[in-house]
Design a protein that fits this description.
195 residues, Cathepsin D, subunit A, domain 1, alpha+beta, 6-stranded mixed sheet, 2 domains, globular
């Protein structure tokens, strides 16, 4: 039993070290301008507190760094839908480029624009005019762009509900708030066509 306690203590120390290291990396990223449009997830908001919270944040960080994510954030501070995942696009036009100002003030290149096809509740939907920003870590759905396209969004009781533009009383998706963010898992349809 004593050996197990010692091992747990050492593992905890290693995790705390990696959390501090990851925190420094995130701060460095913000200074270089690779952080996204003012969105911060639980992995980039490190607070001093319980060891379990630090371990959870480190786990979240590892997931972000080492796997492709279908997680999108409903973001009111972002003017355009954006992703750093080129594989997500159904159709993609590299000739449409622009500059995007990040939440930290840095100006980065959007290297294309396209459409992402998703499968939601058994039916296919398309998200148009999504910017491809290669250095972006999180995928962002811009609230303003959704509204411009006729969708309604209601933020209430720790949920964001997105209503269909054709059937205004039908909720397309309900997103639960987690750590002051609205993460949404989207499943891409596999067809691709590059322009």
């Amino acid at each position: 039993m004593a050996l197990l306690r010692k091992l747990k203590k050492k593992v905890r120390k290693v995790l705390v070290f990696f959390v501090k290291f990851a925190k420094r990396l995130i701060i460095m990223q913000k200074n270089v301008g690779t952080k996204d449009c003012s969105t911060t997830t639980g992995a980039s908001k490190f607070r001093e507190g319980k060891e379990e919270e630090k371990e959870e944040n480190f786990s979240t960080l590892l997931n972000r760094c080492f796997k492709e994510s279908n997680e999108w954030y409903v973001d009111s501070g972002c003017t355009n839908h954006m992703t750093g995942d080129e594989k997500a696009f159904l159709s993609f036009n590299r000739s449409i480029t622009s500059k995007v100002r990040m939440g930290n003030g840095a100006l980065v290149d959007a290297k294309g624009k396209g459409t992402i096809s998703i499968n939601r509740k058994g039916s296919g939907k398309q998200i148009h005019d999504v910017l491809y920003v290669p250095d972006l870590e999180e995928n962002l759905l811009g609230v303003g762009q959704l509204m411009e396209n006729g969708y309604s969004l209601v933020f209430r009781d720790n949920y964001c509900r997105i209503y269909d533009k054709i059937e205004p009383n039908q909720v397309i998706v309900e997103v639960k708030m987690i750590k002051r963010n609205f993460p949404l898992q989207l499943h891409y349809n596999a067809l691709k066509m590059k322009l």
